[in-house]
Amino acid sequence: MNHSTLSLKGLALACTIFVAQAAQAGPQAQAVERVVMGHAIPAVTLFSEQTKALDIAAQNECTSTALIPAYNAAFDAWMGLQHLNIGPIEADARSLTIAFWPDKKGMIPKSLKAQIEAQDSAVFDAGEFAHVSIASRGLFALEFMLFDDEFTAYDQGDYSCHLVQAIAHDLSQTAAYIASEWTREDGYGTVLLNAGTADSARYQSEAEALQTLYTMLITGLENTAVQRIGRPLGSFEKPRPKRAEAYRSGRALRNIILSVQAARDLAVTMAPDTPTETLDILDDVLAKAHALDDPTLASVADPFGRLKVEIVAQRIEASLGAIANDIGAPLGVSAGFNASDGD
């Protein structure tokens, strides 16, 4: 039985009921429905599909060269979802389990080394592996195993091979659970759609549900400017290119671009009308980011290269005011507190 298909059918039923009431629904409820059905559900579904493909690929051939395409596809899908750090993604620290970054204390390589040296049998039991340190799980643990010279020298059948397979399977299971929790009949998608009704114990109004989604839009862009760009920028005297997200796999710039593209899609989906000013700025951000042609952000160590990267961050920050004008004001919402604020 395909649980994902059943879940989608359940959510479709809830959405049908919601749409039947659309004549009475206000612009805030309509915006929530657009985001749930047009942005969030496709994102969680794609991530589940791509991590399942990565899992299958890893079971067939665990070596780094063979897995890189499937790994990148799964990471791409995560970048379309990572800004929605609410509901089942936020619960039980699943977002950190998927993407343990920034790893300020270098816990990932330490945890992986300890696991390999101990030949930890958890890799042979999915239930047991789900309880190992989050530093040994998710996309960044896989990045070390597939791209870091200290970990890549393994063959099919080695313990490290089994570790890679365990990480990939665990990631797939986590993604499948998130997709199910978003799409089942009484899942998080339905909770958002039912905001302000007698059936909702979570959100007392459409405005509260929409504010939650709007906060994800703002926070996602802020995290890209402050974390994905700000961390490798460091200071003028001491740039920190090795602090860039996923630099080992050459994804630092790609992740910035994909995160902005995801925010752009969310903005367009949420907006009651075409968010012209927002699109002008975010499209400029994307053009400037593509022009960097610097996969690892190594150019932050060069004064001229640093300036170009700083401009991308500044333009992302500028988009926040445009979003408030194009989306927040017309819909009557502003960004609230998010658990990732201040990280």
- CATH hierarchy, class of the largest domain: Mainly Alpha
Number of domains: 2
The separation of the N and C termini measures 40 Å
What is the H/E order?
HHHHHHHHHHHHHH
Specify the number of helices.
14
Anisotropy-based shape: globular
Name given to the CATH homologous superfamily of the largest domain: M75 peptidase, HXXE motif
**Low-confidence parts lasting 5 or more residues at pLDDT below 50?**
339-343
- CATH architecture identity of the largest domain: Up-down Bundle
The major sheet is characterized as: none
CATH fold category name of the largest domain:
A middle domain of Talin 1
Signal peptide: 1-25
Organism: Pacificibacter marinus
GO cellular component, one term: cell envelope
Subcellular location: Cell envelope
List keywords for this structure.
single chain, 343 residues, mainly alpha, A middle domain of Talin 1, 2 domains, 14 helices, 66% helix, globular, disordered C terminus
What report would you give on this structure?
The protein is mainly alpha-helical. It folds into two domains: 3-193, Up-down Bundle (A middle domain of Talin 1), CATH 1.20.1420.20; 206-331. 66% of the residues lie in helices and 0% in strands. The chain contains 14 helices and no strands. It has helices at residues 3-20, 27-60, 64-79, 87-90, 94-98, 107-118, 126-129, 138-147, 159-183, 188-193, 206-233, 252-270, 276-292, 303-331. α8 runs antiparallel to α9, α11 (206-233) packs antiparallel against α14 (303-331) and α12 (252-270) runs antiparallel to α13. The longest helix is centred in the first third of the chain and has 34 residues, at 27-60. The radius of gyration is 21 Å and the shape is globular.
